[in-house]
Design goal:
The chain is mostly helical. It has helices at residues 5-16, 25-37, 40-54, 68-89, 91-101, 104-122, 125-137, 140-148. α2 runs antiparallel to α5 (91-101), α2 (25-37) packs across α6 (104-122) and α3 (40-54) packs across α6 (104-122).
C-alpha cells in the first residue's frame, strides 16, 4: 500500500495542477524564468489565488469560505506579480516566447509555474498526512490483484 500512496497523490494533484503537454523552447525558457524568479512566498500566493478561484465552482464551493474581498485582494496581488514577471523580471523571455510561439505561451508558462507552486504545496507534511489518510481508504490488495490479473 505504501508503494501506491505516491501514485494516488500524483493522480489527485494531476486533476488540480495540469501542466501543458507540449511547449516550445521559448515557452520553456519563459517557464524556467517564471519558476526561478518567484519566491516561496509568491508561490504560496499563487496557490492561495488558485484555491480561492477554484472554490467558486459549485461542486466544491461548500468546502471553502472565501469572501469576495479576499478573492479581490488575491487577484490584485497576483496581477501585480504577473505584471512584474512579464514587464521586468522575465521580459526578455516573455517577448521572445510571444514573438516566436504566440500568446498561448503565457498560459502554458504560467501553468508550469502553478504546477510547481502546487507541487510545493503538496510537499507540506500536513498535506502529505491528508494524502496518507486518503490512502487508508483505498483497497490496495484489490487494486494490486486487478493490475496483476492477466487480460
Amino acid at each position: 500500500m505504501k508503494r501506491l500512496l505516491p501514485l494516488f497523490a500524483c493522480i489527485t494533484l494531476a486533476f488540480v495542477f495540469v501542466a501543458p503537454a507540449v511547449a516550445g523552447p521559448y515557452t520553456d525558457d519563459l517557464s524556467k524564468c517564471l519558476v526561478r524568479s518567484t519566491t516561496p512566498e509568491e508561490k504560496s500566493l499563487l496557490v492561495q489565488w488558485m484555491f480561492a478561484n477554484m472554490a467558486l465552482h459549485p461542486d466544491v464551493k461548500y468546502l471553502a469560505r472565501v469572501t469576495p474581498a479576499e478573492r479581490d485582494r488575491l487577484n490584485q496581488k497576483v496581477a501585480a506579480l504577473f505584471e512584474s514577471l512579464l514587464t521586468r523580471t522575465c521580459v526578455a523571455e516573455a517577448r521572445d516566447a510571444v514573438k516566436n510561439e504566440g500568446p498561448s505561451t503565457f498560459e502554458a508558462s504560467f501553468t508550469v509555474l502553478g504546477s510547481v507552486a502546487g507541487r510545493d504545496l503538496s510537499a507540506h507534511p500536513q498535506v502529505q498526512a491528508g494524502f496518507a489518510e486518503f490512502a487508508k481508504a483505498i483497497n490496495g490488495p484489490k487494486i494490486e490483484k486487478a493490475l496483476a490479473a492477466k487480460q
